[in-house]
Design brief:
The protein is an alpha+beta fold. The protein contains seven helices and 15 strands. The chain has helices at 121-138, 176-192, 196-207, 248-269, 306-311, 320-328, 332-335, and strands spanning 3-6, 13-16, 54-57, 68-74, 89-91, 94-96, 102-107, 146-153, 165-171, 211-214, 218-221, 232-236, 274-279, 294-299, 314-316. The longest helix has 22 residues, at 248-269. The protein is globular, with a radius of gyration of 20 Å. Keywords: Carbohydrate metabolism, Metal-binding, Nucleotidyltransferase, Transferase, Zinc.
């Protein structure tokens, strides 16, 4: 029997339709081949990208040259541009403003790698610190309200270059999906006096059936109302509203947890295309009690079609309980070493 489940954060309903499902092993993706050829993100091609905004590099090396470990550059084809004024205005019932913001690319390694999992935990930690540094810098600009960090892997997930990289788009308005989450959490806080995400963490840990990875400071689990097969969220076990307030010990463990979850997804689903996004609190708000930053990892194994677009429902053919069990039992030591061929 299909089951309707309600997401307590956004009030969005999903349909868990396991009768329509294949087994988890049937979701294995086509291998993503390393194509080779020219890549503007590889070390030695620094002059083929816009000048770098920042980088972590070896001592004594110069900007826009070899010697970097993580490098941030403006997107060559930005969704929003950093120069100019917002010029907010109306036209009858319609509102508009200039497309002002920032669009940056975080190149995660000087080597041509296709996956963040090919790096060591310490290298992933530096990527997280880069995310943090860029948010801290850009939130100083009073024109901007929100910074969305995200990663596209594979053509089905929107990636146009295979060299492992993330992106940051900073906007003058708060994205509607974040507003829905924040509004739901604020209503819960007004009624219960607690953070809904914190309660969710405690309930998932107590239940255990949807846990994918349980660390000392972070937990990864398949959300109760998962929109997509093998969707995984990562949350801090203690309340934290802003990602950019991440501390060193937290960054160390988060790097390990994130890499571990991605290894499990790659090993069990044979390198699926995926997106991950980081939802955090808007720049203009200080520390708040009702919202909790988190990472959402979304494998792109199914397509959103007419019913989903027309109704706002999602149809998920793998229950989060089964997905979590499958990922928990995945032996990354045995499978992760298998290279793309």
């Amino acid at each position: 029997m299909p089951e309707l489940r309600k997401d307590p954060i956004s009030s969005r309903w999903v349909i868990i339709a396991t009768e329509r499902a294949m087994r988890p092993t049937d979701f294995k993706s086509e291998p993503q081949l390393i194509r080779g050829g020219f890549c503007p993100f590889c070390e030695g091609n620094e002059d083929k990208t816009p000048p770098e905004i920042m980088s972590y590099r070896e001592r004594g090396t110069q900007a826009n040259s070899k010697g970097w470990r993580v490098r941030v550059v403006p997107n060559k084809f930005p969704a929003l541009r950093i120069e100019g004024k917002l010029n907010k205005h109306g036209e009858g019932i319609y509102d508009s403003m200039h497309g002002i913001g920032a669009h940056e690319v975080i190149v995660e390694s000087p080597k041509h790698i296709a996956s963040l999992t090919e790096l060591e935990d310490k290298q992933v930690e530096e990527i997280l610190w880069t995310y943090r540094d860029r948010l801290i810098d850009l939130k100083k600009d009073r024109r901007f309200n929100y910074g969305l960090l995200f990663k596209n892997v594979g053509t089905a997930a929107g990636a146009t270059l295979e060299h492992s990289h993330s992106q940051l788009i900073v906007t003058p308005i708060v994205p509607i999906s974040v507003m829905h989450e924040m509004n739901g959490c604020e209503e819960f806080y007004k009624y219960r006096g607690r953070c809904l995400f914190c309660d969710m963490v405690q309930q998932e840990l107590a239940t255990g059936t949807r846990i994918v990875y349980d660390g000392e400071m972070f937990v990864a689990f398949a959300p109760y109302a998962s929109r997509f097969p093998f969707e995984v969220w990562i949350l801090s076990k203690v309340h934290a509203s802003h990602f950019e307030n991440l501390q060193k010990l937290e960054a160390e463990e988060l790097a390990h947890v994130l890499r571990n979850v991605l290894l499990k997804l790659e090993a069990s689903l044979e390198f699926p295309p995926y997106n991950y996004i980081i939802h955090t609190t808007p720049f203009t708000l200080g520390e708040i009690e009702h919202y909790h930053w988190h990472i959402e990892i979304i494998p792109r194994l199914t397509r959103v079609a007419g019913f989903e677009w027309g109704s706002g429902f999602y149809i998920n053919t793998v229950s989060p309980e089964n997905a979590a069990e499958f990922l928990r039992e995945t032996d990354i030591e045995k499978k992760a070493g298998s290279a793309r061929s």
